[in-house]
Amino acid sequence: MQKVSDALEFIGTILPSYTHTRDAVHVAVIPARAEDRLKPGQPVGYGRGVALAGADALHIGIVDPFLGPAGVEPNQYFYIFLFPRTITGLSHIWTHPDLPDLGEPREQLPSEAEDVLRSQARSLGLSLERMVDLATNYNNNSTCHYTGEEEMYLDNPDAFWEAWEMYTGMKITLRVKENQEFFRCAC
User: Fold this and answer.
1) For residues 61 and 28, what is the distance between their CA atoms, to the nearest angstrom?
2) pLDDT score for 55
C-alpha cells in the first residue's frame, strides 16, 4: 500500500522514498510586471506591482516556470509563483508574511495609498519617488535621511507606513515599528 502524504510538504525537496502517491497542489500566484528580461523559474521579489530581480530583492517566489524559453520581456505581465509553505492561508484569496494583507479586493486601496504618500512627500518638499526610496532604504537598510539643520517629521507615521506597505508591496520591519521616523537632522 502506498503512503498517503501531503505533497505540499515535499515540494522543493527531494522525496525521501518512492512511497508517495500522486497528488495535486495549490500554488499561490501574484501578477507582476517585468522591468527587466526574466527567465522562467528565476527567483524574484515583488513591489508596487513589479517583479524585483536584483540580488538585494527579498525573493518571495519564481517567474512562472511554465513559460517558454523566451521568458518575460520588460513591461510584460506574468505570474510569480510564490515559494511553497510561505503563504499563511489559502482559499484563492491568500496571505503572505512579506506582502500586505489585502483582504477582499478593493480597487481604491493602491490609489489611496499613493495619495497619502504624495501628500506627505509634498509637505516635506520631496517627490513621491524620492520619499518612497528614502522610506524603502530605511526599512531595508536602516539608512536615515540626513536633513542638515532642518527638522523633518512624518505628519502621521502610522498612516504613512501603512500606505508605504500598500504602495510597495513590502512589509515594514520591526525596526520601523519601533522607530518610524527616518529623517535625522544635525541638531
Assistant:
1) 9
2) 77
Contact status, residue 96 vs residue 82, Cβ threshold 8 Å: yes
Name the more confident of 1 and 63: 63
Four-point Cα dihedral 158, 162, 168, 172, nearest 10: 60
Same domain, 70 and 128: no
Residue 104 lies in a domain: no
Q: How far apart are CA 97 and CA 169, in angstroms?
A: 11
Cβ contact 38:71 at 8 Å = yes
Distance set, CA 187 to CA 11, 138, 150 (Å)? 54, 20, 8
Contact indicator for 24, 36 with CB cutoff of 8 Å: no
Q: Say yes or no: 1 and 91 in one domain.
A: yes
CA atoms of 134 and 121, how far apart (whole Å): 11
Q: What is the mean pLDDT of the chain?
A: 77
Copy the grid coordinates of residue 139: 526599512
Checking if the pLDDT of 117 tops 70, the result is yes
Predicted model pTM: 0.49
